[in-house]
Structure formats: C-alpha cells, structure tokens
C-alpha cells in the first residue's frame, strides 16, 4: 500500500501512479474525519486511488478552525482538487459530505472543469428538502441544533450514531470535537438551496431504510438535480447504516467503480480505433 499525505488529502493506492485510471474522493460527515472511511481502500479495485478528504477542524487538522459555510469550503476544495483531476474521478460523500460533494460538482460544472464520472451521495436530503433538516434533528423543529446548549447538542449527536461508544463516553474527546460539530451542523442547517441546479453528472444515492434524517422520499429528491442517470440504493440500517457492517456498502461501491473503470477502458479503445481509422484513411 502506497500512501501520500497532503494538507487537504490522504491518498492511498495499491498500484503505481501510472497505473491509476480512477480516483475516488471520500468526503466525511459532520464531525467526521478520514477515520470514517478507515481501510475502505482495501476493498477497492486495484487501479483505483482512494483519496480521503482532510477537512479543517478534525483529525490531524484539529487545531485549525472548521468552516461553517459550504460556499467558502467548496471554493477552497476546488482550488486544492484541480491538480488531482488529471485522471477520471468519482466523488463520494456521506451526510454533510454528500452536500459538499454536490455543491463542489456545481462549481466544477460552472467553471467548465473536468466533471466527475459519478457523484455518490449517502444519507443526505436533496436540496429541496434541506429546509426540513432541523426538523429531523430536534423535537421543537425550529430551534437550530447548532444553537443548543452543549449537553443537549451532544446528546442529540450521539443519538444519531456514527460516534463509536469508546469515544461517545469520553467527555474530553467530545469537548474537543464540539466546536467542529457545531460548525458542521451550522453548515447544514443554514444551507440555502436557492441556487441549486441540475448538473450533467450521474448520481448514485445511498441510504438506510430506517433513516429518519434522510428518508426515501428525501433521497429520491436528488433526481431533480441531475440531467444524467440516477439510481437509489437502500441498505439495512439508520443514518450511519454502514458503521457496524460496511461490507454491503463496500461491495456495492467496488462494483460501481469497476463498472465505471470498464466503461472508461471501452471508451479509450473506441477512441484509439477511431484514431487508427482516421490515420489509415489519410
């Protein structure tokens, strides 16, 4: 396994760089870091480079302030990502990471840059349902979660799952990640979908069949935001359906990446044949 750490990215690959034909970017959920996707690269195809996105305010960047505005965050990400779109790539984001992936794709499209082959969004409502984001988290429905007192805020976050028991019972750890969690939740709870539009990229949408934060109807809403293919896959579980048993998700993701890779190979062969035919007709 070859690894390369950059300020914003943690690259992992089994092949030489020259053999990589697809790059997978993994965007973490609110409060999450690269550990959310720990060891996922071990189940990816050999010609796929896995890139774990390292956001400020967590993990090795815990001393940096987190960013609470998706527009500012995606502006920064776009600048950092440009040099890594030299090969075809896929974006995968869970929960908040799904929203970031979509907003990033919008900017890539508007700027005429190389679009991702696929965007895979996991456990995140479509933009037209984001006005109900707070309703799915709090009993009063109107009082933003990120404004709640520390105890109530953390009790709610722990109740969503996604934080291992060993960490959820560690008050020092919870206090350490609290500022980042608040800013991440603010990003989601203050998201403005007014400028959200369809992009010419295929979407795969994943979710848990018992998720009250991103329901089947709210996941289906992503159809509106792509002009290409759309597919929805529901797994057994809640908002963090893959935490206890990631194998089903990783099996599904691996097959998707293999399909994309095979199509890219077929496309390359067609281009070579067309080039050869043009040369032979001169």
From TrEMBL:
Gene3D superfamilies: alpha/beta hydrolase (3.40.50.1820). It comes from the Bacteria. The keyword Coiled coil does not apply. It is an enzyme of class 3 (hydrolase). It holds the Pfam family Thioesterase. Signal peptide: none annotated. The keyword Hydrolase applies. GO terms for molecular function: fatty acyl-[ACP] hydrolase activity. SUPFAM superfamilies: alpha/beta-Hydrolases. Residues 23-255 form the Thioesterase domain. Its EC number is 3.1.2.21. InterPro entries: AB_hydrolase_fold, TEII, Thioesterase. Keywords: Hydrolase. Belongs to the thioesterase family. This is Medium-chain acyl-[acyl-carrier-protein] hydrolase. The lineage of its organism: Bacteria, Bacillati, Bacillota, Bacilli, Bacillales.
């Amino acid at each position: 396994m070859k690894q390369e750490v950059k300020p914003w990215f943690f690259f992992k690959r089994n092949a030489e760089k020259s053999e990589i034909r697809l790059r997978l970017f993994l965007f973490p959920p609110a409060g999450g870091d690269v550990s959310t996707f720990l060891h996922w690269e071990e189940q990816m195809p050999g010609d796929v480079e896995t890139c774990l996105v390292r956001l400020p305010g967590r993990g090795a960047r815990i001393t940096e302030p987190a960013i609470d505005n998706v527009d500012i965050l995606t502006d920064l990400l776009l600048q950092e990502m440009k040099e890594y779109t030299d090969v075809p790539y896929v974006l995968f984001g869970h929960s908040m990471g799904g929203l970031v992936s979509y907003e990033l794709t919008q900017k890539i499209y508007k700027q005429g840059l190389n679009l991702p082959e696929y965007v895979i969004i996991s456990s995140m409502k479509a933009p037209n349902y984001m006005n109900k984001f707070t309703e799915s988290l709090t009993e009063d429905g109107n009082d933003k979660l990120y404004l709640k007192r520390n105890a109530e805020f953390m009790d709610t976050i722990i109740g969503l799952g996604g934080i291992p028991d060993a960490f959820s019972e560690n008050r020092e750890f919870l206090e350490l990640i609290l500022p980042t969690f608040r800013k991440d939740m603010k990003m989601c709870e203050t998201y403005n979908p007014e400028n959200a539009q369809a992009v010419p990229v295929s979407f795969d949408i994943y979710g848990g069949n018992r998720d009250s934060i991103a329901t089947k109807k709210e996941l289906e809403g992503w159809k509106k935001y792509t002009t290409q293919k759309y597919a929805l896959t529901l797994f057994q579980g809640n908002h963090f359906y893959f935490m206890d048993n990631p194998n089903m998700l990783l099996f599904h993701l691996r097959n998707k990446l293999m399909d994309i890779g095979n199509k890219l190979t077929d496309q390359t062969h067609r281009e070579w044949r067309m080039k050869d035919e043009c040369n032979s007709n001169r």
